[in-house]
């Protein structure tokens, strides 16, 4: 029975697509707020002000959901690198001869 790898090509593509979508929502939402920050306000029922308030609330909620995962990923990245590229383990200590050390008193 052939076992499929833990992260198949389909899973990697879906994870990449999800990451790009989250990044685009954060970037485009921020861009909208920055562009419309100095708009010509029509008054109390301004649709742009309502959209900005809704977008800022969404960005706060989205960043609050994403930031703990990003900080955890940053903390675990060195462990992932160590697991992906293991260093050879030396079972014996190097001898002075292998280190070419001159033993003179």
Instruction: Please indicate the percent range of residues in DSSP E strands (runs of 2 or more).
Output: under 5%
Helix segment tally: 2
Structural class of the helix and strand makeup?
A: mainly alpha
SSE pattern, N- to C-terminal: HH
Number of strands: 0
Cα end-to-end separation: 65 Å
| Low-pLDDT runs | none
* Biggest sheet features: none
Summed over residues and divided by their number, the pLDDT gives a mean of 80
Task: Give the % helix.
Answer: 55-70%
Spatial shape: elongated
From the alpha-carbon coordinates, what is the Rg to the nearest angstrom?
27 Å
Write up what this structure looks like.
The chain is mainly α and 105 residues long. The chain has a domain at 29-35 and 46-84. Helix content is 62%, strand content 0%. The protein has 2 helices and no strands. α1 runs antiparallel to α2. The longest helix is centred in the middle third of the chain and has 38 residues, at 47-84. It is elongated, with a radius of gyration of 27 Å.
Task: Please outline the helices and strands.
Elements: H1 9-35, H2 47-84
Helix pairs in contact: 1-2
Question: Nutshell version of this structure?
Answer:
The protein has helices at about 10-35, 45-85.
Which key phrases capture this entry?
105 residues; mainly alpha; 0% strand
